[in-house]
Amino acid sequence: MFLIELLNEGLIKNDLDFLINDTILVDQYKGKISDNSLVVVLFIKDLNAAKELEDFIQRTPTKYLLLTELNTNLDKNNFYQLFLDFERKKESIKELLFILENINKLTNIKEWKMKIGKNKFTYRVNEENLLRFINFDQEN
Questions:
Q1: Which end of the chain has fewer surrounding CB within 10 Å, N or C?
Q2: Alpha-carbon torsion 96, 100, 101, 106, what sign?
Q3: Residue 126 lies in a domain
Q4: How far apart, in whole angstroms, are the C-alpha atoms of residue 122 and residue 139?
Q5: Please, are residues 82 and 97 in contact by the beta-carbon 8 Å criterion?
Q6: Which of 133, 125, 120 is nearest to 109 (CA)?
Q7: In angstroms, what CA-CA distances link 101 with 106, 109, 111, 115, 138?
Q8: Number of domains in the chain
Q9: What is the CATH number of the domain that holds 111?
Q10: Strand 80-86 and strand 65-71: pairing?
Q11: Residues 112, 125: contact at Cβ < 8 Å?
Q12: 39-64: per-residue pLDDT in tens?
C-alpha cells in the first residue's frame, strides 16, 4: 500500500528499468555518521534516476536507515553511487530487503546480487547470506 502512494507521487512502475545495476556493495565503506555503520551502495546509470531513487528511499518508512548520500560524480564504470548508511543491527537486514523489494517494482530486477566486505565473490542477496557475512559483533 505504501509503495503505491510513493509511486503516485513521482516514480511509476518500471520507471527505472535498466538504470539500476543489480549488484550492490555491502560493508565495503565506512559510514558518514558512524565508522560502525553498515554501508550499502547502489549503482545507477542516470543522475536524474539516482536522485529520484534517493528521494524514493528517503520516503520509505525505516527505523535503522541513518543516511542516504548520492555521489554525483560518475565512478570508473560510469555509474552514480547511492550510499545507504544503516545501523549495524540484525534488524537492518529486513529493512534493506524491504527497500530492495520496493525498488524491484520500479525496475526489471528480479534478483539482487552483492559483493560483501573484502570478499571478491558475488552472492545472492537474501537474509541468510546477509546474516552469514555481516559482522554484527561491532554493533553499537
A1: N
A2: positive
A3: yes
A4: 24
A5: no
A6: 125
A7: 9, 9, 10, 18, 27
A8: 1
A9: 3.30.1360
A10: antiparallel
A11: yes
A12: 999 999 999 999 999 999 999 999 99
The verdict on residue 137 lying in a domain is no
Helices (H) and strands (E) in the chain, counts: 4, 6
How many whole angstroms from its chain centre is CA 126?
13
pTM above 0.85, yes or no: yes
Residues 1-8 have a mean pLDDT of: 41
Q: CA–CA separation, 23 vs 47, rounded Å? A: 18
Q: What are the tens digits of pLDDT across the range 22-42? A: 999 999 999 998 889 999 999
Residue 30 lies in a domain: yes
Taking the C-alpha atoms of residue 118 and residue 19, their distance in angstroms, rounded to an integer, is 26
Amino acid at residue number 32: K
In a domain, 74, yes or no: yes
Q: What DSSP designation does 89 have?
A: S
Cell reading at 81: 553511487
85-100 pLDDT, tens digit each: 999 999 999 999 999 9
